[in-house]
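Entry:
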Amino acid sequence: MFPICFILFFLFLSTSNAAVQDFCVGDPMGPESPAGYSCKPVTKVTIDDFVFSGLGIPGNTTNIINAAVTPAFAAQFPGVNGLGISAARLDLAPGGVIPMHTHPGASELLIVARGRITSGFISSANNVYYKTLKKGDSIVLPQGLLHFQVNAAKIHSVAFVSFSSPVPGLQILDFALFANNLPSLLVEKTTFLDDAQVKKLKAVLGGTG
């Protein structure tokens, strides 16, 4: 006869396994929260929810920053929803730059796959950490801190990044300042830029006011 402790142990295993939820494939049609999307019914989940092919496709770098970001976040890759991970591809043409930006919801790990990329971040104490990375090098960029990427090669450079959240969030500093309707006078006061420069940047980035 089994001791009562063994019986309780096996009972615990059986009940806990029954309560385990293996995954929470996101339902992009539902509401999004900082934690991701609500779960798609398991009966509607397929293998395609766990596969994403977009990172193998070069992004279109014909734009003002000569760069492109291909995200594999919960919205594009439902299988990562709820798993605490996501990814993206960075394409930087010669002269390309990913401007100063933050990810409020995740830290970032970047791996250079082609070319050379200068990347770094600014700490909350305003200390600057940056380095030019070659193929195979990686850099970690802490959650919430301003950081950037600049193509340091004369060829098209590529990096792959992973995030510690399926919904890392994104705020680009230049667009936050100059691509909205915040009155120019307030932008000038808070950035110490003159009126002509603020108006010029608003015109380039589509801001008003």
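The chain has two domains: 32-169, 176-205.
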